[in-house]
Amino acid sequence: MTAGFSKVRTIAVTSGKGGVGKTNIATNLAMIFRRYKKRVLLVDLDLGLANIDILLGFHAEYTLHDVIAGRKEMKDIIHHGPDGLMIVPASSGVEELTYLNEMQKDRLFKGFSGLDDEVDIVIVDTGAGISSNVLSFVLAANEILLVTTPEPTAITDAYAMIKVLSKKRKNLNIRLLVNQSCSKEEAEITVKKITSVTRRFLDVNIEYFGYLLRDPNVPIATRLQKSFVKEYPNTTATSCLSSIAASFLKKDDGTQALGIEGYFRRIADEKYVDTLSPNS
Hints:
Elements: E1 9-15, H1 22-35, E2 40-45, H2 52-55, H3 64-68, H4 74-77, E3 79-80, E4 86-88, H5 102-113, E5 121-128, H6 132-139, E6 143-148, H7 152-168, E7 172-181, H8 184-201, E8 204-213, H9 217-223, H10 228-231, H11 236-250, H12 259-268, H13 270-274
Parallel strand pairs: 1-5, 1-6, 2-4, 2-5, 6-7, 7-8
Antiparallel strand pairs: 3-4
């Protein structure tokens, strides 16, 4: 392995608009990776609206902020969820990631670097939209999965997200997932609406990575505070997401993974974050 790089893949799951099912996708994708015997760490960085704990029905007594503050070690805050899924819960204190002193940075990096040998895949559930925090969490990852729906507002906001990201990094590769589609054809039309514009105006590669059909079992599982892939293993949404997970495991985006420590080092690096200001 090349010095300075890791075998750990970091996947940022994001969206231009809230309410498109991003957190459900991130959580259930992580659950499917566990079926492939992958060691998965699910990190909740949806600041202000963190709800993976609610989605999976557990109470997060400690969060990442407790590690930064020196009150807890990483091993103390990791929640072991269904099927051995490891979860790092969020808190509003995570917003301090870009304003850490040297001691806090050391705690953060040491906490996560200790997990590099225990994890194969890190899935980061970011917030929606184009705030500087969201952009830094997305661009620090090796792989980006952008979730949208066929709704016009979701399509517009997905394009806005792509436009901002493409200005921050050249030759960016974004994987697009269409959620809550009525049909395969509707998902393909949604993708064409986005890519027809991005090809003309943006320096970015949009890779259509699949779709999830509307499935009544998904909201039922959400109300039960259960993972839909676990509660309804044979339902349509589970089948669709399983195909997407298999594609992730088969494909490599060609970048060298920086691992968990490298991911959080990018976020906390002041020079890196400064380049992500909305007006830059």
